[in-house]
Specification:
This protein is an all-alpha fold. About 75% of the residues lie in helices and about 5% in strands.
Amino acid sequence: MLRQRVITALILGPAAVLAILFLPQMILMAVLAAAVLAGAWEWSVFPGFTRHSARWAYVGCIAVCLAAAWWWLDRGGALHGLLYVTLAWWLLALIWVVVAPRRVNRLSAGVAGLFVLVPAWLALVRLHAMAPALMLFLLLLAVSADIGAYFVGRRYGRHKLAPQVSPGKTWEGVCGGLLASAGMAAIGVAWFSADPGLTNPAGFIGLCVAVVAASIIGDLTESMFKRHAGLKDSGTLLPGHGGVLDRIDSITAAAPMFLLGLERLGLLLK
């Protein structure tokens, strides 16, 4: 399993870096949209859609929402308002996971996919437009947290984080992920000191830790819906990792939080 994870990561990692740094904005938008729609296909199982026609209809609904959101923003719509709504959703998701993880039905699972996937796509597109390096750093931050949580949790994990949702995750793993991400945040301070220019290095590190905490909520939320659907993985497209959702679940919560923090806290020079 670990060997497959490493091999897949060694293939996906360089491809993602090259795409982020060298693809034109519009092409990258399309690539990200394709990834989100692949995630929507996997998510369509959570509300209990089994027929291909129903699953394609759900994917089409998400595609329409992506297009509508981009059209609205392209014509002066307020991105910050959408990000605050997204933040409220993730706070609700946290309460949901902690208080009532078994209270999932077809309607709630279907609507949740909209709040999970569409804002994440918009946030990633906006980050890339601000600076491709910001989007790349976010992915590296999530990967570092994932690696830290995996190895620390595997070696020292004793206390379950959310046994009703994801029995394999532990508080020790969370600590390992936060420590690893703090180290990556320190690298980010050096990385962005000149371009695009940090105004508050300590605030940036704090934001990175908060973003990783949000990414954990994203991971647990997807796990909650997978458990409701009786699935271990959202798909089988990525050997050792599962499906597309299993790779982007943390990013779905992390990207809007990172963008909102950067823009509203004024951490970057204009």
